[in-house]
Amino acid sequence: MMQVISFVTQKGGSGKSTTAASVAVAAFEEGRRVFMLELDKQGTLTDWTESRAAEEGPEFERIDSTMLEKAISTLKEAGYQLVVIDTPGADNPHINAVMRVSDFCLIPCRPTATDLKGCLPTVQSLIRLDKPFAFVLTQCPPRSGRVDEARAGLAALGLIAEPPIVSRADHQDAMAAGMGVTEFNATGAAAFEIRQLWNWIDHKLQPKVKKNVKAA
C-alpha cells in the first residue's frame, strides 16, 4: 500500500525542505521504495537532487499542482510505497491540493512565537479538510526552555512529532552535499534524531488494527 506524507507550512524558513529530504532518505534506508515530489518554485529539493552523487536513494520529480493527482496515481501503479511531498513555504492555494492527497501532513515549526502564530492558517486548512497532521519542531536550540514552551503552545492545536529536531550543522552540510543527514554522518546526533522522527511517522502511518472483543 502506498502512503503519502507532505510537509506543509505557510511560514518560510522552518527547515521544511531539509527535513523532508532527510526523512525520505531515512525511509529509503529502511527499505521503503520512496518517491519525492516538489511543488516549491524555489527549487530547494531540485538543487539538492542535482547535487547528489549517491547512485541509490529516493527518486524525484518537480511538478505543479495540476499534475499532482495524475502523479500520485502513476506512482501508486508503479509500486512505490512512500511519497514525500515538499510544498511552498508561503501562502499558496495549491497547498490545499497537496493536503487532499496526503495520508499524513507534517507542519515544521521553529520554537518561536512568530512561527507558532504563522502555523495557524495551515492548521485551519487541515482541520477544514479533516486531514491528520502533526507538528515537527525544527531548528531547536539545545537545552533550552523555549522548546518546552513551544510544545505547550502547540499541544493545544494538535499532535507533536517526536523528537524535536535540534539545530545542527549536519543538516545544512548534508543539504549542500545532496545527502540526507543519515548518509552524511550516519552516527551523528542529527542522523539519530531523523531516524527517530521517521520511525515516529511510520508508526502513525500504520493502520490501526481493531482487536476482537469476545462476548461475555
What do you see in this structure?
The protein has one domain: 3-Layer(aba) Sandwich (Rossmann fold), CATH 3.40.50. It is 44% helix and 15% strand. It contains ten helices and seven strands. It has helices at residues 16-29, 44-51, 68-77, 95-101, 113-118, 120-129, 145-155, 169-176, 181-184, 189-205; strands at 3-7, 34-38, 59-62, 82-86, 104-109, 133-137, 159-160. Strand 2, helix 2 (44-51) and strand 3 form a beta-alpha-beta unit. Helix 1 packs across helix 10 (189-205). The protein starts with a strand and ends in an 11-residue tail after the last helix. Mean pLDDT is 90; it is low at 209-216. This is Chromosome partitioning protein ParA. Keywords: Plasmid. It holds the Pfam family VirC1.
Per-chain topology:
Blueprint: E1 3-7, H1 16-29, E2 34-38, H2 44-51, E3 59-62, H3 68-77, E4 82-86, H4 95-101, E5 104-109, H5 113-118, H6 120-129, E6 133-137, H7 145-155, E7 159-160, H8 169-176, H9 181-184, H10 189-205
Parallel strand pairs: 1-4, 1-5, 2-3, 2-4, 5-6, 6-7
Helix pairs in contact: 1-10
Keywords: Plasmid
Protein name: Chromosome partitioning protein ParA
InterPro entries: DNA_Partitioning_ATPase, P-loop_NTPase, VirC1
